[in-house]
Design a protein that fits this description.
With 127 residues, the protein is an alpha/beta fold. The protein is built from two helices and eight strands; from the N terminus they run E-H-E-E-E-E-H-E-E-E. A hairpin with a 5-residue loop joins strand 7 and strand 8. The two termini are 30 Å apart.
Length: 127
């Protein structure tokens, strides 16, 4: 096997500080790197190998493969999934994310204990 897994997902955001707060407080992620004067950050979930990078605008010197796509434009990304430690706490997680600026789209019960929300920039997140 040539590859060892997914490295990261990169999202364009409108407000880097708001987005950092959403993902750190909402999902327990921590900032592990910051570049371009804080306009690009990498976050990871403790104990997991996932990385989410966020960028506000296109700082000088940064590659931009999304071109004219703005924050919240999915460009083929349907949603980003996060694992909830205890599905019995789904309602608590939903309330937390809404308090941080998310919008609830739907829950799938009783078949699955899962919910879909939009983050403050419009990306769809499944928990």
């Amino acid at each position: 096997m040539l590859f060892d897994g997914l490295k990261h997902v990169h999202l364009k955001v409108n407000d880097i500080d708001r987005s950092k707060e959403f993902y750190t407080l909402g999902f327990g992620m921590t900032v592990t790197a910051s570049q371009f004067g804080g306009k690009v950050v990498a976050l990871t979930t403790p104990g997991a190998g996932d990385t989410l990078t966020l960028s506000e605008g296109v700082p000088t010197g940064m590659l931009d493969f999304a071109g004219d796509s703005a924050a919240g434009d999915s460009a083929g990304i349907d949603h980003i999934g996060f694992v909830l430690k205890d599905t019995a706490k789904l309602d608590e997680a939903i309330e937390l994310l809404i308090s941080l600026g998310a919008t609830l789209l739907c829950t799938l019960r009783p078949d699955k204990e899962t919910a879909f929300l939009r983050d403050p920039d419009g990306y769809v997140i499944q928990i």
